[in-house]
Amino acid sequence: MRDRQAQKSGQLFSGLLLMNVAFLGIALISSMVFNKVAITKRDVKIFLCLLMVLSSSWMLYYMLATARKPHAVLYKDPHAGAFWLRGSLVLFGTCSLLLAVFNIGFEVDRAGCESSIEIIFPCLEILTISIQMCLLWFYSKDCIQVQHNLTRYGLMLTLTTDLLLWILAVMNDSVQEEIENSPKASNNMTPSQGKCHCSCIEKDYCRVFYQGYRTLYPFNLEYNLIGCSMLYIMWKNVGRKVIGHATHTLPHFRLHGVLFGPLLGMIALLVGACIFVMYQVRATSSTLTQQEFVFYYGYHIALLPVMTLCSLAGTIIHTLEERQLDTHKNPTRSLDTVLLLGAALGQFAISYYSIVAVVATNTQEVVNCLNLTYSVVIIIQHIGQNIFIIEGLRKQPPVESSTAEENSKELAMNGGEQPAGRATTRRASIQNLRRASHLYLQTYSQLNWKRRAVKEIALFLILCNIILWIMPAFGLHPQFENGLEKNFYGATAWFVILNFGLPLAIFYRMHSVGGLLEVYLIA
Q1: C-alpha–C-alpha distance, residues 520 and 463, integer Å
Q2: Would you state the pLDDT for residue 111?
Q3: CA separation (Å) from 87 to 37, 466, 503?
Q4: DSSP alpha helix (H) spans, 184-330
Q5: Separation of alpha carbons 223 and 96, rounded Å
Q6: Could you give the CA distance from residue 456 to residue 516 in angstroms, rounded to a whole number?
């Protein structure tokens, strides 16, 4: 009882630390946006540099001291730090490191007209990201049993740092979008956003640095959010004692003969890639026409209902399956559900504001009618996909296949261990192998229509969500270019709405890919 009270108190006070530091950072960042004279980007970056130094120091202390203490890590959470999650962390983290390198190269050439903090900041980012990737790769499953309060405060400080870095990146990206789409911004505007007019932009290598920075920007946004989610799970696991029956792990990734899901998903991905390239080429070379919007909205209107029907079919199959629900305490599953529902709010906000704007103005024009249909079907698709993923994550992995596989291996080993040279032994060995093969094939036949259909649907939705992540993450934002909502709500109000909704909508797609991958493995 006393341990539980201490755990609640530690979580409460460390959570208060997160809230206060986060609100202070958000206040500084928003003040920088609204009053660039009083609070400059230099002030914000100095504050974030201080946080990065403190969080990096704690992470090094945890890896070199806390985790190595006797009886420090007696339990590990099998659900935390899934391989796909750590793999995506390393992928996005590596891209974030390259982004910081490009940023340093760009700022070094402009060192004469920029503050030195513009170079120090990305250098500290490289250090922080490198240390954090090591921490989350090797220690993300830890249920630490020593230095509870210090560990909680350190995790919350590191989580707050990642969150504020994400908010700063979102602000910079949104401001850049507003500048690029502003009619006043095309005159004498350089990629430095007009703040520093020097010869750098005229140099080819400097353009390479800048274009590389802009291309890798979305990966940094995803990295910070993934880091926040993994740090939160570590925070929840501080002092936790994992019970024995919760130690089952997910099966390895195998295709199991699925064909139609990957095939249809690849078709959707390739068609979406073609539309993305066409849209981007036209947006960068000349002004966008009605044709580009028709292709964009038409593609989504054709794809999203198919995804919704697949999610509905998968949910029905989940109800028909006889697998038990996973009722064990699982912070990872709870966080996955909260993130799915929370991130969907971003797209909901954009879609409902678009619906009101279209209905209140003119639904007769082709682009407006497509925009209205797109806004409705994407809301329905989010709801259907969330239900499918959450229902799939609540199921326990099937035990029949793993049991049959182990039995077949055991029978094969027993057959192989008999002494050679005797006909009866050889005959018994062959019978054992046949029995094992029959049992293995019989189990795989159970994969047939229910489990195989879930796997087909999950793979199809994974590939669809990938292309739906690529489009907005790499600059396909018709909400900025069509002008309807901007004229209806005003440039400032619509900018605030998109500034809130788009980053969450982008994160929703990437997080859905992880959830669907787990649904595939659980099936």
Answers
A1: 13
A2: 63
A3: 42, 16, 21
A4: 204-236, 260-285, 290-320
A5: 7
A6: 11
216-227, pLDDT tens digit by residue?
878 888 899 999
Q: Is 186 helix (H, G, I), strand (E, B) or coil?
A: coil
What is the DSSP code (8-state) at residue 81?
S
Q: What pLDDT, on the 0 to 100 scale, is given for residue 112?
A: 63
Please answer whether residues 330 and 303 qualify as being in contact, where contact means their C-beta atoms are separated by less than 8 angstroms: no
Q: Name the DSSP letter for residue 325.
A: B
Whole-number pLDDT of residue 173: 62
| Residue pair 378/351 in contact by the 8 Å Cβ criterion | yes
Q: What are phi and psi of 145, to 5 degrees?
A: -115, 5
Query: The tokens of 59 are what?
Result: 């992470």
Which structure tokens are listed for 340?
Answer: 């799915």
Compute the distance between CA of residue 117 and CA of residue 52 in angstroms, rounded to an integer.
13
pLDDT at residue 284, as a whole number: 74
Residues 6+ apart with CB under 8 A from 322: none
* Residue 231 in tokens: 């740090």
CB 261 within 8 A of CB 456: yes
pLDDT at 24 over 70: yes
Q: Which amino acid is at 56?
A: S
As given in the structure block, the two tokens for residue 204 are: 């080819």
**Do the Cβ atoms of 506 and 221 come closer than 8 Å?**
yes
Question: What's the confidence (pLDDT) of residue 198?
Answer: 47
Reading the block at residue 404, the tokens are 């049959």
Task: Answer left, alpha or beta for residue 196, where phi above 0 means left and psi between -120 and 50 means alpha.
Answer: beta
Position 347 confidence tier, pLDDT thresholds 50, 70, 90: very high
494: CB partners within 8 A, 6+ apart:
353, 479, 485, 486, 488
Q: Which two tokens stand for residue 236?
A: 């929840």
Task: Output the average pLDDT for the chain.
Answer: 81
84 pLDDT tier (thresholds 50, 70, 90): confident
* Torsion angle in degrees (nearest 10) through CA of 236, 239, 244, 246: 0
Annotate 385-435 with DSSP letters as a single string: HHHHHHHHHHBPPPSHHHHHHHHHHHHHHHHHTSPTT-HHHHHHHHHHHHH
State how far the Cα of 82 lies from the Cα of 17, in Å rounded to an integer.
Answer: 28
**Rg from Cα positions in the chain:** 26
Tens-digit pLDDT profile for residues 283-317: 777 777 888 889 999 999 999 999 999 999 999 98
d(CA 374, CA 355): 9
Q: What is the DSSP letter of 251?
A: P
Q: Name the nearest CA neighbour of 83 among 95, 73, 74, 91.
A: 91
Going by C-alpha positions, the residue among 194, 159, 168, 167 that lies closest to residue 180 is 194
- Determine the pLDDT at residue 445: 47
Q: What is the 3-state secondary structure (H, E, C) of 34-66?
A: HCCCCCCHHHHHHHHHHHHHHHHHHHHHHHHCH
Q: Give percent of the chain above pLDDT 90.
A: 38
HSE value, Cβ hemisphere, 13 Å, CA-based, for 365: 13
